[in-house]
Amino acid sequence: MFVRLVGKELKYLFKSVIFYLLLAVIFLFYITQFAPPAPDSTFGPVDEMHFIYSKLQSDYEKGMLSSVFLGISARLSEEQRQFIKEAMDKMAPEGLEDKRKGEFAVSYEDYLQIMSELDSKLGGSTYYGDGNRMDLLNTENRYGYKPIDNPEEEMRKIFAMMYSDYSRGEIASYKWIMGRTIRLSEEQKSEIRKAMDAMSPDGFELYSGELKGAESSGKKDITFNVTYEQYLNIVRNLDKKLGGGTNYGDMLRGDILTTEKTYEEAAADFKVLLEKDRLTNAYAREYADYMGITAGFFPVFLAAFLLIRDKRSRMHELIYSRSVSSSAYVWAKYTALVAVVFLCYLVTASYSTYVFARIAAVNGYQIDYLAFYKYAINWILPTVLFTVSAGMLMSTLFGNGIAAIPIQFVIWIVSLWPLKGDYRLFKFVIRYNEVSNYNEYMRWAAEIGYNRLFFVFISLTLVGLTTLIWSWKRGGSNVLPAGFAKRCKA
Amino acid sequence: MYCPQDLLSAVRHNARISLRFNFLAAAAMTLLTPFIFSLKLLTYNDMAKIGEIYLTMTGIILISCIGGIDERVNVHEISFIKPLAHVYIFALRMLTAFIVEFIMIACIMAVAELNGGDFPFWTVTSGVWISAVFFGLVGLTVVNIANDLAQGYIAAFIYFIFEWFTKGKYTGDFFVLSLLNGSFDEKYRILAVIAALTFGNILYVRTKS
Q1: Which of A56, A73, A192, A384 pairs with B28 at a CA distance of 20 to 30 A?
Q2: Distances (CA, A) of A429 to A18, A255, A266, A297, A382
Q3: What is the ipTM of this complex?
């Protein structure tokens, strides 16, 4: 009976326009947000010389100097294009076979000389000149950030932030979906000052240069007379006193305590990403992040009207009078809907696997072919289970499908931020919005695991509750399948 | 002939039947606003976020439902043959919903302003109202054509989520949530689209009934 009901529901869902609208939004999101890389994309960090060589090549081919980040767009004359070609030929007379790792014919010092000469020939002030080239590298060729792991450096950065907030009289605060700047009251300012004095009694004076003979570089001479644990207590208390949601709290402090990676560090991280994550696991996490957003809301449009449909088509009295148990009926509908919704994510996971298989073939990488499926099952499926079960419960409770939509919207929107690092048990959408390596992911793996198990459990409980309410509305007591009920009575 | 009393009676009755559960849901969302977001000392950017991302939803919930009310309760065969053309009733329902939507948004903006908010009240209120009505009309149009409430809702929400996450990359000068970018210019174009959708829906209902 259960299998037959699932089959019937599946047939109905595949004929439903809303299912295809759901499929459309999932694909739209996939294309516009995740957008898998092209097979010939470069992966991994590129050092300065290789990046500049690629830039020279691009500018030569397009016949213009252009940088979106620096707001530069200037056509090159034929003579100027030849200057660029000469610079490229000096760096690599026979071209570069490997855009990321190919050997150059010049040393770094010679390369700097070539860039300086090219800048002069192009009229000066181009992004190949010394000063502007660093701006270009800092905007178009960043290597990412790493957490600060030196306690002293961390305390120094937080102290600097405290001084800045105190001086400006404002603080950044983040609650729910909104980040905003809050004006500090005198009491709040004095709390910041107290925290600073607790960390370093003369630190504030050194920063403000009030101490006789102190120069601005005196900031480096600040000494802290607290241990790291004491410092953590200070900043946590400060966050509470400032109303929570500030950069001093545990949730957001990690995001600002970062420093830029060097090329060598980025290259080492990429090696770990290839060896431990096999590339696809890292991208699968980003995929599950984006797809999880759709899984947290859109299935509710199908779920909310799943049981109401019978009432709308005036078939509910007929269904109530049938011998099918309430649990078989409700669970069959739930199973069918979850299967159909999850199928959409399996399709996108399959396509992603295909794309990365081509990338692996072009670049010679070893990938994990099951990565996208693993993260779809572990991260997205619990979200789908919860969204569908919550939608069914709310619509059954209120007797109206509309009720489920705004409620689901509110709980969904609360789950969407921050973009990483918050997996408390009310966050039913897993956000992990970066392609980071295995070691970074392992910081959160356990928390994510508990979160997912919790939501699977909650989802099944909600479906159980839905069954009870539906059965009560039905006016009968045959919640359980007939055979099971007989055995219980016996 | 119809006197003002009849009109008032029609407004009251239609407000009661077209703004029932959807009104409660939209009102609940609006009333929850001060609890979800602190409405103290908010700036233009803060109000734009609250309005465009959160309050806009009330438009979808309130306005989409107006489509196909009579069909859903199976009284359309009776209501369509009444002396007063059904299209006037439909237009009345739309107007009522637009006004209720404006009142709800204005209330929240007023509370924010009274709590020390620093933002252009009428610009933000009207901008958010335009977004809410636009998405509501998208839903209403789909409901009218497909005669399915769920399809109307999902179409409106898909459009909204798409606009929000792509930040106007694909809609350009017709970016609905333009207050997020600090711009009101797009709202005039959206207002023109609202007028077209309103007229289109009225024409469609007139033809159908």
Answers
A1: A384
A2: 22, 20, 29, 10, 9
A3: 0.80
Burial class (CB in 10 A: 0-12, 13-18, 19+), A64: middle
- Listed range (A55-64, A253-262, B130-139, B170-179) with the worst mean pLDDT: A253-262
DSSP A402-439: GGHHHHHHHHHHHHS-SSBS---TT--S--B-S---HH
Task: Select from A305, A312, A402 the Cβ nearest to the Cβ of B25.
Answer: A402
Nearest CA in chain B to A182: B41
Identity of the amino acid at A396: T
The rounded mean pLDDT for chain A is 85
Mean pLDDT throughout A416-428?
Answer: 86
- The model's pTM is 0.81
CB count within 10 Å of CB A220 equals 8
Q: Which class for A184: exposed (0-12), middle (13-18), buried (19 or more C-beta within 10 A)?
A: middle
**Cβ–Cβ below 8 Å for A413 and B53:** yes
Chain A positions in Cβ-Cβ contact with residue B26 (cut-off 8 Å): 406
pLDDT reported for residue A82: 92
pLDDT in tens, A159-209: 999 999 999 888 888 766 667 777 788 899 999 999 999 999 888 888 777
